[in-house]
User: Fold these one by one.
Assistant:
Number 1:
Amino acid sequence: MTDLSNSPPLPAAPGVINRADYRPPAWLVPEIALDFALALDATRVRSTIRVEANPAGEPSSLLRLNGDGLAAREVLVDGQAHNDWRMDGGDLLIDLPGAAHEITIETLIDPSANTQLSGLYASGGMLCTQCEAEGFRRIAFFPDRPDVLSVYSVRMAGDKAAFPVLLANGNPVASGENADGTHWAEWHDPWPKPSYLFALVAGDLVATRDRFVTRSGRAVDLAIWVRQGDETRTGHAMRSLIASMKWDEEAYGREYDLDLFNIVAVSDFNAGAMENKGLNIFNTRYILADPETATDADYDAIESVVAHEYFHNWSGNRVTCRDWFQLSLKEGFTVLRDQQFSAAMGSAPVKRIEDVRILRAAQFPEDSGPLAHPIRPDSYQEISNFYTATVYNKGAEVIRMMTVLAGLERFRKGTDLYFERHDGEAATCEDFVRAIEDGAGLDLAQFRRWYAQAGTPRVEVSLTHAGGTARVTLRQTVPPTPGQPDKLPMVIPLRAALFDRTSGTHRGEELLVLTETEQSWTFDGFAEPPVLSINRGFSAPVAISSPASSADLLFLAKHDDDPFARYEAMQQLVVQHLVAAVEGRLGESERDAGRRAIGDAIAAVLADPALDDLMRGELLILPGEAYLAEQIPAVDPSRVHDEREALKAWLGAALGAQWRALHDRCSAVAYGLSAESRGARKLKTLALVFLAAADPADAAARAKRQYDAADNMTDRQGALMVLCGLEAPERAAALADFHDRFAGNMLVIDKWFSLQAGSLHPRAIEHVKALAGHPDFTLTNPNRVRALYMTFAANAGAFHAADGEGYRLLADLIVRLDPINGNVAARCVPPLGRWRKVEPQRAALMRAQLERIAAVPDLSRDVREQVTRSLEG
Ligand code: TRP
Ligand code: ZN
């Protein structure tokens, strides 16, 4: 072995990777051939790579091949046995004499022992891969970074009875059988790709097939592979796939580029799904659906995740990321694309409201806590921790703002240019922004700060009126975040309208683009002070502070022609009331007046004949506890919970007759997938929710009837959700019935766990403890872990128990799960990291649990990073 004096210098802080340190790879790998001898507990991998010195890189004779837990059984260079290599941590280093070589390395891996579900792993007797972000290095030694693009040829052989189906990326080339009961297949993917998009599946699967003809006439064979028995539940996923393929042609001019598109559904999966070229791999929960086992929300999630992964074929695969700091390049853009698709498939206003609700519930807390980071982070220790609501959902909002600034038509010119310029490349966020600037004709110089600065900007609005002129003044502040104490002003495009109080109309929408710390706009011709509707359509991902009176909010809730703004006025009406109540700023008469105003607004929504029921449901949903808690410093989460429940109870009682009438009306609507039928189901359970808070006995009886009459999962789950929160005799029987009825259906049993972990029941925390010991519970299935613990952590009433028991439960889980699956364990840390936002006693209890986790030796890099940042930030 040689002394490698030309090793690169060690990074300044060990374990921290900085965006500024990016260097092009010294070596490229134009081709790779992989040969697998498959078996569940011992798979032999032989990889042959052609390496070439990168003319654009700094010349180095040293080739670094990343590995994670691999041992090389044999290393050949240019066909000759080679001993001049060494290990550096998990990586294999070879010193090479020339500028082009062929290297073959053989390794042996044990998929059945791979509980991390990263790399090649076993799930229910089948073998499958998950390589994003850095899983390929758990399969073969390779420069495992997204700017190394290779053409893949894959050969695999295995027992025909155990693995009758053998799949990989691209096209099947050849296959055959051996006399010893094994068979083999060869696949070739003509499109160069980074290693994170490699995929292989071997198992006993059945396919549902269809076909799509692209607009230029390419016939594409579509197949969705599932376990025997599940093939009756793939129809919705297949319809969603076909609709996505068509929509991407029409909306973005993007056509599919292979003759085959395979999807495989697997039960054990760390994330939602994965966009591997030509072979998407999905969590079963985003594929399988039928009316008896999947809710309307499940149907929507399937449609959007199938579309998301398909859209990655262009935004992610044809144009990929230079390095993982650019993750939002593919994820933010692809989330925007899937949101636009879902909006086109159903109700666009309802979809927009749902997306904003997710942003506020998941991303706003991230942005205001210790884990805050820009959509393009500057450093990380473990990249898996950056698959966040910020990179995904705020990333989508940032690109959506470009559509607001440019208009959809010009934005499309920008994306056309982006795809044309960077096809086949590993690109950066900067490349994307420049293509939109050039193609759409925008100047995004200052706008780029959205990529660099973390934190949710706050915009203070004031409206004055004098001498027929209305003046709108906007003032922005961007809060400090970890590592970013001082911020510069952002570009904030706010769609706005000024309403005439008497006519209830406005004269057209304005786009107010705030670029300075403070700016004013004047509008003439208003005899009376107008009502301001601002951030219509949620045109910018900011928090608006507005002194709007409840009279103005009631006006907008009734008259605003922008559906999002109407929803927002309803939300603000409730937020203002509940925040004041939690902060103890309401006297009895003010509390009564506030409740009555909300009650009147809700009664008007219930009675408005112009609303469709899906939208009506949005206007009736109270703001969530997490979003409310965000607005209150040093919050006592139990006060938020209690005040919100008290308002629900008041509304349930005050509008009791209306809720009962609504439940009756909606119960008479037959099951179907039309908007009318779905709207009825949404309102049916919503009515039960309000009734349950006011009149538990009546609600329990109604819920029981809804449960017994249910011919679909939306009604059944909704009824059981309400029963789960009540100390009612109907509760236990319904839970037992549900478990028996769906025994063996993993996805529905997940719901059974979730309903109890997320319930309003006063003893929910005890239920969670008991469920952790239930025979159906396991730490090795991420869906099951999330169903129990992530649902529990989002259930503020239970998780924030004053004695800290909820925090202890979650910390116990993290410590036990970490050695099994560090990726999933790390995703459970953020709820404990909110301690700075919470009142001091609970904050101390949360910190204590973080410190307890931090003291555990040998934590995964994933959990170590999240816990450290949560304590420091
Ligand atoms: N790229 C996937 C997506 O569509 C995300 C993903 C799949 C992922 N598997 C993962 C992220 C494993 C982290 C770990 O968004
Ligand atoms: Zn994605």
Number 2:
Amino acid sequence: MRFTLPPAPGFGSDCALWVAEVAALTQPDRVVWYYDTPDERAALLAQSVTEGKLTKLDSDLRPGSYLARSDAADVARVESRTFICSESESDAGPTNNWRDPISMRAELAARFAGAMRGRTMFVVPFSMGVAHSPLARFGLQITDSAYAALSMGVMTRVSREVRTRIDDGANWVPTVHSVGAPLTADTADTNWPSNTDKYIAHFPETREVWSYGSGYGGNALLAKKCFALRIASVLGRDEGWLAEHMLLVRLTSPEGRPFHIAAAFPSACGKTNLSMLQPTLPGWTVETLGDDIVWMKPGGDGRMWAINPEAGFFGVAPGTGPGTNPVATSMIERDTIFTNVALTPESDVWWEGLSPAPAALTDWQGQPWQPGTDRPAAHPNSRFTVSAGACPLIAEEYFSGRAVPLDAILFGGRRASTTPLAFEAYNWDHGVFMGATMASEQTAAAEGTVGRVRRDPFAMLPFCGYNMTDYWEHWLKISEQLDPDRAPRIFQVNWFRRGENGDFLWPGFGDNARVLAWICRRVAGYVPASPTPIGMLPTLDDLHVHGLNLTDEAQDQLLAVNDAEWAAETASIREWFDGFDGHVPPRVLEQLEQLEHRLAAVHEPGATARARH
Ligand code: GTP
Ligand code: SPV
Ligand code: MN
């Protein structure tokens, strides 16, 4: 028997017909529309507990909260199995895994045929953004995972209204997810069904997502990376806006002036933490708008306007504690789904960095664990899933859906060396160059070697749904719609520079407010900055570091621009650009040439000490 994937439903088409076609292919036992009403949610949570897929945590210690333990081989995004199936290979570009859409449809049809046998197929209508907002986009996720349906209920705005709007002809993006583990009369279900064969496939022309084999995070919650970044980046290219892997935060100065900052850091590099930081600088306040994804569009006023399309946080658990992130710690006191953290004997959760280790635990794989055990109790990519409405600092825009005007855009990553704590781009093109050449040490958020430095342009390497150099071109072009005096200013930051002994030189977390405050003062025109070859730097005094007790080494190194390191950096950027076969936009190449030129100039006779910094 030959199967095909149902064709993408066209604009204004009947979603029920498409759902029936997917059901005919995947053959679930039953089809259930899931609107995430309180009753539906309670019933699905209870059923998941009965089936052993969720553990209910102690109702006094962690009310309304649950623990999920994944299969040990399904713990993070799988970049090697993520595909962009554009008609032309050059539209996917050299940084994506390209597959021909016709052959991928055939390959997937064979996987999806009968994939949901014995299971329930949930149909989840969701909105990215508040449903009545002009920037909102709708989608349907079909999934055979109750965990995915429950998580979608937290991470997106799931409602019957969205289905009505779709039935009334609104545009929507179809997404299909199966864990790839059909049940037969003689196969027992497991607590985390999944398949060793995995596909995270995107069809940019027809705006579809098909995901098979994984139940974890961005592989399974298709509204997140698959729709809101990979498909949305393509929509943005075609329609004149940007879908970005960024946090969004509002800082208000002691004088009461609000500043809106978006920041692109790669996975597990500090977005959630920065989005809800508790400033250690008196008088400054923070409101949280988003922690992972920003959609932004130039307005008629020449400013860049931004929204967070998500409704929840899927945050990294390890490292989250009262000392580092008291806001998140209180946000996840209740009504939270935890995945792959450790369980205490009292049925509460624990992970490295939350508190001193309890005497005995059950680790993320269900094994006994004591302090001193030579593996972490919580998986390094263990996560909490919680409504953004639970964040004590959540901004009013979470409810109203209003967009905010961006004052600054930050690029950052984990760099043990080379990149100073903070510096400003000379202009938009220089900022685009900073974004395009960002590099970061890899983390546990995706498969791969943790700690290896890789270029991760705009923190979008795994998330750009089209050709990376076309995407840089789009960033350059979008500035034509911005007023140069009102466009967001661009900065680079690095909280992760290390000293000789391997320790972080910068305290990070709440003290990052010192850097953000400098950025706001730059935007307001209140502080000068020193021109250096790599950009405009603050002094330590500008960062109000008094009281931090920085070591001599930290004072010396945090803002240092080291000649040898930057010579190696520019050489490595040039080599990396060479891999794009002449497609790097000339304006970006020109920025590299200017940087090399500025670096060489500091060695010429007469170069100022200040330029040498
Ligand atoms: P994704 O959800 O994967 O996109 O990650 P993210 O960018 O939101 O990262 P998150 O804020 O969850 O931080 C990831 C890890 O970095 C956690 O273990 C944090 O404790 C740690 N971290 C965050 N901010 C800082 C900081 O300023 N300094 C240091 N040293 N560590 C930090
Ligand atoms: C990331 O890896 O950037 C995440 C987690 O935010 S996931 O949703 O799994 O992509
Ligand atoms: Mn992320």
